[in-house]
Amino acid sequence: MIRPPETYIVPAGSVMVPARIARLLMVKILDSYRSRIRGVDPELDTILTALDLAGRRWAAQRADRGTPVAATAEPVEPSNEWFTTTQAADVLGITSRAVRKALAEKKLTGFHRGGQWWIAREELAHYRATRDHHEETP
After folding, report:
1. DSSP string covering 58-75, please?
2. Which of 53, 102, 104, 130 to pair with 35, CA 20 to 30 A apart?
3. Domain boundaries, the chain
């Protein structure tokens, strides 16, 4: 059942976006524009990152309902912790150049502010789990 548009507006005037819709927005529309508009507005970068994270979590939960995967990601507590490319490289055990390449190839999501990339802890965990899974798959 489709809800009326007014039900998605929260008291502060913001719009609540269900994770499934966030995923569709990112995959079908916003990902193609994201690199071109990155850095235009820091709040926009942050919101696009939040939409992407919510959509990825929704997609991961749906994937969890299917055939079990041999290796599972370590559980990660939600956090407001953000990492630079150098810090992310240390966490992932790769070079900062590899982190920037993953960002450019959209295998890793972050936002650019003040001449520096920032990547959420949850995104690092997702990237690590995806990378580990692909390394184990023949």
Report:
1. HHHHHHHTSSPPSS-PPP
2. 130
3. 7-136
